[in-house]
Amino acid sequence: MTERPIVDFDHHSTEFHEDRVAGWAELRECPVAFNERYGGFWVVSGHDVVDQVSRDGETFSSKHQREPGDDGISYLGIAGIPRGRSIPTAGIAEVEGPTHVALRRVMNRYLTPTAIGAMRPRMEASARWFLDQVIERGRLDLVDDFTNPVPAVLTMDLVGLPLDDWHLYAEFFHGTIAHRPGSPEFDRAIGNVGAMLTRLGEEAAARRQAPTDDLLSDLVTMEVDGRRLDDDEIRSVLWNLVGGGLDTTTSLTSLSLLHLAQHPEQRQDLIDHPELLAGATEEFLRFFSVNETLTRTITADTTLGGQELCRGEHLMLSWLSANRDERVFERPDEVVLDRAPNPHLAFGVGAHRCIGMHMARTMFQVLITEVLTRIPDYEIDADGVQLYAGNPELNGVVHLPATFTPGPRLGPAERPF
Ligand code: HEM
After folding, report:
1. Which residues of the chain have pLDDT under 70?
2. Is residue 1 part of a domain?
3. 223-239 tens-digit pLDDT
4. HSE-CB of 356 using CA atoms within 13 angstroms
5. Cα–Cα distance between 335 and 372 in angstroms, integer?
């Protein structure tokens, strides 16, 4: 066996997190290398190899296989993050084969471009209503008052969960992703886990008794190999779907609004030329890559980028690094609103490609349009900006306070969703 190129970095450290764009640029000099930390794992950072791995789900599996001696570390989750017994495995994201295909088929009905197009008026009504609650004040926290609640309510709506429960899920996912384990904010958020799982279980049980025409009903009544999913499977699929829907779009929108405040000429371009928004969406997806990394498990000895990888080893994929690869993107560290082509991998690629991507794109565009048309002069209070403490999987903003010229409510006064 040839010698493995070794790299040494701790993706959990503040040091790596704070300078990670430069860190990944250095790592890309050897796009497939081995890091001996956390039990050892391959680090895949080049656009071509990230793409290759993602398309070959047979050799590079997303499946979470509990085996004797398994310490509870998820195979999809990043090395060094203990999952904890009470938290379900990551639903559809860690399932392969016929069950994966069947689950995607059921969910897809609600997530096609046509289905999301039909949802758009509800997205607009939701964005309008949340902005109405603060627009007369001239001040808001763009995260707490806008980019967090809107995707949360819409995710409840997508699945068929009670809309008023959005707080429970948003506080959990936002709190545990934004803050480091051991911090008071993290502990407070993780305290919600029992209540969330109970609520998910109750809702699933109610639909089993009396199915309606919604995604949750389809999930509890679907059959794979002649059997229905059990409670644990349902909870874990819902967990993954709700988790996927919530914090990702929130982060993408918050980071983009921060960027536009810091680049007034680009904000003005988007205001003057709304037709730029579709391309700009892809560019913000590429540039921020809010889902920064994920992991795969190698199921058979193989070669990748000239390296020999062995069955049973783990591998970290960096979407963030792939999306900044200078071999594919000119001026990769700049936001170019009309970049074309833009073959970014922010939603992944292959069988596990983000199933919520059409919803994410549309929610993002609705949220940005609402801000740019109703509070176009918003200014960020730089002292109050708080970014995520350093989560190696996801990037985002905790607080984004802003002021703007107050405007009128558009109504209705009652929540229209
Ligand atoms: C900016 C927004 C989003 C980004 C950047 C994003 C990114 C990703 C990425 C990178 C993956 C993994 C792909 C892979 O492993 O190959 C993924 C999977 C997934 N996402 Fe998203 N996502 C976003 C929004 C959403 C939304 C809105 C939903 C739900 C409505 C969602 C639900 C899921 C689910 C269920 C999976 C697992 C799919 C599977 O394994 O088959 N995501 N997403």
Report:
1. 1, 64-90, 390
2. no
3. 888 889 888 888 888 88
4. 20
5. 18
Instruction: Measure CA 303 to chain center.
Output: 29
- Residue type at position 54: S
Q: Is the CB of 149 under 6 A from ligand 1?
A: no
Ligand 1: nearest atom to the Cα of 363 = 27
Q: What is the pLDDT of residue 197?
A: 86
Residue 123: which CATH number?
1.10.630.10
Tokens representing residue 364 in the block: 């993002």
Pocket test for ligand 1, best of 354, 364, 397 (most atoms within 8 A of CB): 354
Taking the CB of residue 392, how many other CB atoms lie within 10 A of it? 22
Domain residue limits at 302: 6-403
Q: Is residue 149 part of a domain?
A: yes
Q: What's the pLDDT tens digit per position in 57-66?
A: 999 988 764 4
For the CA of 294, the closest atom of ligand 1 is 15
Task: State pLDDT tens for residues 383-403.
Answer: 999 998 867 778 899 999 999
Q: Is residue 417 situated within a structural domain?
A: no
